[in-house]
Design a protein that fits this description.
Layout: H1 2-19, H2 27-42, H3 69-77, E1 81-85, E2 97-100, H4 110-120, E3 126-130, H5 137-147, H6 150-170, E4 177-179, E5 184-194, E6 197-198, E7 215-222, H7 226-234, H8 237-242, H9 252-262, E8 269-276, E9 281-287, E10 295-299, H10 313-324, E11 330-334, H11 353-358, H12 362-380, H13 398-412, H14 415-428
Parallel strand pairs: 1-11, 2-3, 2-11, 3-10
Antiparallel strand pairs: 4-5, 5-7, 6-8, 8-9, 9-10
Helix pairs in contact: 1-2, 2-3, 5-6
Amino acid sequence: MKSVVAFILSGLACCVRRFTKTPKPTSVTIECCAAVVLLTLLSTGCDQAIHSQYGTRTGKHKTSVNGTAVFSEMFELAGYDVSSRNYISRRLGDFDVIVWTPDDFVPPSLAQRISIESWLSQGNRTLIYVGRDYDALSQYWSAAASDAPPDQQLELWRRRGYAKSSFATQRDSIPDQAMARWFIVRDRGQREKVRGLVAEDPSWTSGIDAEKLDIEVRAYLDIPKQKDLDLALKGPSTQDLTDYSVNFDNSFDELIFEDGQRQQTLPRFFNVLLASKAGTPLVTEIHDSSWGGSRILAVPNGSFLLNLPLVNHEHRKLAQRMIEECQGRRVGFLHTTPSDRDAHSTASGSLPGISALSSWPIGMIIVHAFLLGVLLCFAWFPILGRPSAGEQPSTTDFGKHIQAIGSLLSRISDREHAYRALAEYQKQRGVSHKATPDTSHDSKPQ
């Protein structure tokens, strides 16, 4: 029954998208979209596994509480063509906007930055970078426990505690301070609950009830200063800044010096579009002269952009404002993992084998096709066990006995004896008539 409800709600989402004709989603449309996803999430029930995979948009984890299906649906309602990518390659050139949700607590590597900046240098493009430091699973169990019957609350609170401890273990990989040119990541160890918003442009905060926000920040994406870069160049990150990574065009001789020099400088322009009342940047705009009008919108985490947080009406207003900052018509949702930090292997644009196996549903199709091929090879080609001796001649075939007797009679060349032998055989079988020899010809018995 629950799966049927989920199917109906998914169909309702498709209807909303199909029959919405406005170029930008109205508040009613956004409400319908978010309500559909919320009810789909709740329809899974507590007796089934809750998907919590981070940054997923399609496949079996589409309804993950940490997914991006709702945000991508809002882009589609705004008139954008939306698709997904699981690795950085030259195929990103098809997009005007990239929403990057890395499942990685460490800031972008040198190889990733060079590849993304090569894409930005095409001009008039927007990257929305969403930091990893957030997990909605504990929030889900808290909401479920508050509305559950008393006999189920203890189990739900136990699951919430497990989710929080599991996420705390994952957060151990966050560095206390890490320089990534676009921003500097600082883990201050204290969680800040955002209760107020500040913005130079009033459209960011217009109509938003700050008391209803549920945004939290622990790892901050601060604007880097020159002294931060100088310290990074003197520290262990110096080698990282001078390493070379292939860019989209594979122009080794032309870009090795240019990329190395650019990565040792800061972007030209930083602007905090939205901040908390305490001054914490929530949306930071980043420009560089080499990007040709492109820009980066850096968000510390997905606490107002992922599936479950977007159930909050105030969060949807902020997400809609983020969409209004974009331009073009093609949007790519980029989901990467720590294994993708070296963009060198995927810069050529060919589909890497490991990434293909880890993507849904291509991975399952490849695995099943491989197993089927192995079974066919075993069925058609190899000879298993000891070789057979072949077909043995039969010793009970009476026809062969007749042929042998006939061959012997032919070899003695005695015609009368042959007739007598035939007559004796017929007599023994009880034949009533006698064989009359035919003497009209002189041929030998065959």
